[in-house]
């Protein structure tokens, strides 16, 4: 009995590592070459071919995220602003769960955050910039007021540390630079970016751990959650190094640096409160971002 | 330029080739040292096409399967020639000294 159909089926599964647009354009051609290059008696793909297809698929996906007709730095800045906005608002919208009841702590803030994230995702700078400025001024109100009620409308949380306010100002400055940039308008990004805050908010609705972390049985869950997040961030920044090697410019490195900046500022401001493990963890994240810039520089002219 | 890229461009110097043709030719020309995986080959071809060093020459269907033939461009010939000269100069640094020592 021929082993070819089983092998072809497995190769087709592996080709799912590539983005759909790439598969539509090159999928049958790749499959044709894979079948020609395979041992006629093989039922399973060779391990080196599996590895090459998975890494090749990831590289194709990374290349697929590039905006056409936009310089790398503008694309990276847009990505960075989007990453900072989605990850910040994922945790800066308070959803409280008391028993079976779920409360939204700041409804206007939440609505504004959703509109802002949609505007950034779609590249609507004229809508995003004023909203981002309001959020930045609002969260930084303790800087220029003394913290008491001055008759201002207070939409969001009042922050006292620079590291907490910085994400909002990074969004403002990033959007302002993109708004005054000459050339082609920014393209819309995938809606899937909005899954970042959506998943966090769903998790807050399901598990009361994030807001009621002082409850003893929940403490372990919170620690597990923090460890999980630390693992995800490390993996994602490792992925940024890899993506940078694949696309050979610093757009993802720039986005990652913007993401990391508020966290590093916060750690710097509160250095004495953190354990050595936490500092080592942030050191690893910083090294990964630096490695991305180095990778971009080293592979820039290489084909 | 990576070794794989160098041998892919070198394989296309004589005539346009399809994916498996490039794998075979690169293997022969490198005396079996370069064994391109298909995923690696197409990643390199994407980059080379993006840099304008190769283009698609023509397509055909063989046994119901599509084949796309790639052709090296003038820029590609220049790039691989420059790389060959660079490698030759690097090799000469060693071979000349070894020849002197041998003498």
Defining traits:
heterodimer; A: 303 residues; mainly alpha; two-stranded antiparallel sheet; 12 helices; 2 strands; B: 103 residues; alpha+beta; Arc Repressor Mutant, subunit A; three-stranded antiparallel sheet; 4 helices; membrane (chain A); transmembrane helix (chain A); transmembrane (chain A)
Question: Radius of gyration of chain B, rounded?
Answer: 16 Å
Low-confidence runs of at least 5 consecutive residues of chain B: none
The level of helicity of chain A is 55-70%
Largest sheet properties of chain B: 3 strands, antiparallel
User: Which pair of chains forms the biggest interface, and how many residues does each contribute?
Assistant: A-B, 27 and 26 residues
Alpha-beta content class of chain B:
alpha+beta
Helix % of chain B is: 55-70%
Using the coordinates shown, work out and report the CATH topology of chain B. Answer: Arc Repressor Mutant, subunit A
Architecture per CATH nomenclature, i.e. the level-2 architecture of chain B:
Orthogonal Bundle
Total helical segments of chain A: 12
**Beta-strand content bin of chain A:** under 5%
Give the strand tally of chain A: 2
Keywords (chain A): Membrane, Transmembrane, Transmembrane helix
């Amino acid at each position: 009995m021929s082993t070819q159909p089983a092998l072809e089926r497995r190769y087709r599964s592996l080709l799912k590592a590539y983005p759909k647009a790439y598969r539509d354009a090159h999928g049958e051609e790749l499959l044709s070459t894979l079948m020609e290059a395979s041992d006629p008696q093989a039922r399973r793909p060779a391990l080196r071919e599996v590895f090459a297809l998975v890494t090749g698929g990831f590289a194709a996906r990374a290349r697929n995220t590039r905006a056409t007709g936009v310089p790398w730095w503008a694309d990276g800045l847009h990505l960075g602003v989007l990453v900072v906005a989605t990850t910040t608002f994922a945790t800066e919208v308070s959803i409280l769960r008391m028993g079976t009841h779920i409360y939204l702590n700041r409804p206007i803030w939440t609505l504004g955050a959703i509109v802002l994230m949609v505007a950034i995702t779609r590249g609507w700078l004229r809508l995003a910039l004023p909203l981002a400025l309001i959020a930045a001024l609002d969260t930084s109100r303790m800087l220029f007021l003394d913290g008491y009620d001055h008759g201002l409308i207070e939409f969001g949380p009042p922050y006292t540390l620079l590291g907490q306010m910085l994400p909002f100002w990074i969004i403002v400055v990033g959007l302002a630079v993109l708004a005054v940039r000459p050339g082609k308008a920014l393209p819309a990004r995938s809606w899937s970016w909005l899954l970042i805050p959506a998943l966090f908010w769903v998790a807050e609705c399901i598990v009361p751990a994030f807001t009621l972390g002082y409850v003893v049985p929940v403490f372990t869950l919170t620690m597990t959650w923090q460890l999980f997040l630390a693992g995800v961030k490390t993996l994602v920044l490792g992925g940024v190094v890899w993506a940078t090697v694949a696309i050979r410019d610093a757009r993802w490195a720039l986005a990652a640096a913007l993401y990391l900046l508020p966290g590093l500022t916060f750690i710097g401001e509160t250095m004495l409160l953190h354990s050595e493990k936490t500092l080592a963890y942030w050191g690893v994240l910083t090294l990964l971002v630096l490695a991305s810039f180095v990778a971009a520089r080293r592979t820039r002219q290489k084909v | 330029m990576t070794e794989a890229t160098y041998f892919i461009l070198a394989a296309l110097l004589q005539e346009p080739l399809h994916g498996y043709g490039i794998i075979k030719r690169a293997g022969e020309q490198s005396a079996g040292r370069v064994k391109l995986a298909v995923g690696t080959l197409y990643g390199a071809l994407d980059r080379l096409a993006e840099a304008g060093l190769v283009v698609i020459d023509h397509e055909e269907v063989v046994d119901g399967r599509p084949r796309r033939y790639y052709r090296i461009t003038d820029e590609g010939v220049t790039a691989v020639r420059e790389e060959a000269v660079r490698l030759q100069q690097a090799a000469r640094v060693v071979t000349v000294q070894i020849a002197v020592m041998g003498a």
